[in-house]
Amino acid sequence: MQNLIVTYNCGRELLKPELFAQYLSDKLQGCPNPDVLVFSLQEIAPIAHAFLGGSFLVPYLDRIRYAVDSLAKTRGETYVSLITRNVGMTVLMAFIRPELLGNVRWMETGGIGVGVHEMGNKGAVGLRLGYAVEEEMMEMTFVAAHLAPMEWALERRNEDWKNIVQGLVFTPVDKKAVRAVAAARRSQVRNSEDEPLLPGSVDNASTPTSGIYTPASHLFFAGDLNYRTSTSRPTPADFSHYPQPVLDKTSSSHYSKLLESDQLAVELKAQNTAHGLTEAAIDFPPTYKYSDAAREVAATNEENKVASALRDNTSSEPTNQDEKWLWAKHRWPSWCDRILYLDIPPWMSSQDPNARIQIHKYTALPLMSTSDHRPVILSLSIPLRPIPPPHDEVLDRDWRLDPPFSIDPQWRQRRRIARSKEIVVGLSAYLGLTWEGRGLLIAMLIGALGGWAVVVSMLQPAVRL
C-alpha cells in the first residue's frame, strides 16, 4: 500500500492551496501515487478558531481539501475525505482513493493536549483504521503531534511524548464497530485469549480502548516535534555559523554539520523518546526557523506566479553558491518537522523476508510565505498484508508488545476537563482578539444598554400636564 504523509506547521494562516499542491506535485515526481494521504497540521488557525473548532475551522481545513483536489488532478487520481480530527491547534486529515474506501472497515480516533493546563495549544491527535485485505484485517495508526518549543525545553519534549503514550487513547468512531474491535484487541494479547488489553476492560459490548502501540498495527508519528540543534539560545556570534547552501559536505557551512547536534537523533538513540520509531535519512536543510525576509522572498515568488519555475530557494542542492538561506537570528536552525515510523516487527520479517517498508522520498517542500516552517513529506510503501500474531517467545523487546508507558486510567476525565478550558479560552480569545468577536461584544453591550434604557424609562413615573 502506498502512503503519503505530510507534516506542516501552518503558522495560524490560511494555506495557499494551489501553491501547496504544486510544490507537492514537484517533490513527488518519481513516486507512486498514494493510496492514502495523511496530513499532520500544527497551528492550523488562530487559537480562538482552533479551540472553538467546528465552523470556525472550516475555512482553514477547506484549503487543505482544495490542495488535495488540485494535487489529484495533476496525478490523474481522485481522493475522498476519510476523516478529520483536531485537538486544539493540531489537526489530522486523512484521504483515500474512492475505490479503496470500502476496504476501511473501522476507524478509531484519540487525542490529548500537552500544552498549558493540558490544553491543545500543543498536543496530539491520532487515527487508527482497519483495512480489509481479503479475509484479514491490516491496521495502520497515524499520529499528528506538536511538542514543546524552545531550545532548552528538551526534557519537556520528552515528557510530552510520555504524556502522549499515556493519554492518547483510541476509541471507535462508529459504535457498530465496537464488538469487532474489542474482539480484535483480545486476539492480540499474547498470553491469554481471555485477558483484556487494559485492566478493567469488560465484555464485547464495552468500548474498547488502546494506546498508540498495538501488536498488529503499523505506526506513523508526524509533526512539529520541536527538537532542536542546541540546548541554549544562539548568541550573535553563532549566527555566522548557521548553515548555508554549499555543495561541499566537508564545509563547515554545510547543513550536515549542524545535523550532528540534532536532539531528536540523540534522544532516539538513548530511548528517551519515540521508543522504537525510526526515520529515513535526512538530506534536506533545517525546516525552521526562517526569517521574515525569507518569507518576503517566498511571497514575491508567489505573487509573480512563477514559483514552480524558480529554483527552490531552500534547496539542499543549490545551483548558485552566492545564494543565502535567510534564518531568524534568535533561533538555531533545526529540523523541527519530522516523520517517524515503526518498522516491521521481527516476527513478521522472519516469516516473510520480503515484508518491508520501502521509502520512496523523505524531503522538505519549499518555504511558503505563510509560515516560518517548511512542510515535510514522506512517501512510502508498506506490505499489503496484516502484521501476524507474534511468536510465543520474542527474544528482543518490541514496543508493540511492551509499550514504554502504561495508559493513564484518568485519561478520559483529564481530556474532558482540558476541553472545557479550551472552550473558555477560545471564547475569550474570540471576543477579545478578533474583529468579529469585538463586533459581537460591542453589539451585545449596545443591546444591553438599550435594554437598560427601556427598563429605566418604564419605571419612571408618568408626567402629569
Strand order of the largest sheet: 8-5-6-7-9-11-10
Which structural class do you get from the secondary structure elements? alpha+beta
Largest sheet composition: 7 strands, mixed
What percentage of residues falls in helices of 4 or more residues?
25-40%
The Rg value, from CA coordinates, equals 25 Å
- State the end-to-end CA separation: 90 Å
Helical segment count: 11
Low confidence ranges: 188-205, 305-311, 314-322
Mean pLDDT: 88
Number of separate strands: 13
Strand proportion, as a percent range, falls in: 15-25%
Tell me, briefly, the overall form. Answer: globular
Order of helices and strands: EHEHHEEEEEHEHEHHEHEHEEHH
Provide structural commentary.
- This protein has about 475 residues and is an alpha+beta fold.
- The chain has helices spanning about 15-25, 45-50, 60-75, 155-165, 180-185, 255-260, 265-270, 290-305, 345-350, 410-435, 435-460, and strands at about 1-10, 35-40, 80-85, 90-95, 105-115, 125-135, 135-145, 170, 215-225, 275-280, 335-340, 360-365, 375-380.
- It contains eleven helices and 13 strands.
- A seven-stranded mixed sheet has the order 8-5-6-7-9-11-10. A six-stranded mixed sheet has the order 3-4-2-1-13-12, with no helix packed on it.
- A hairpin with a 2-residue loop joins strand 6 (about 125-135) and strand 7 (about 135-145).
- Helix 1 packs across helix 3 and helix 10 crosses helix 11 (about 435-460).
- The longest helix is centred in the last third of the chain and has 25 residues, at about 435-460.
- It is globular, with a radius of gyration of 25 Å.
- The N and C termini lie far apart (about 90 Å).
- The model is unreliable at about 190-205, about 305-310 and about 315-320 (pLDDT under 50).
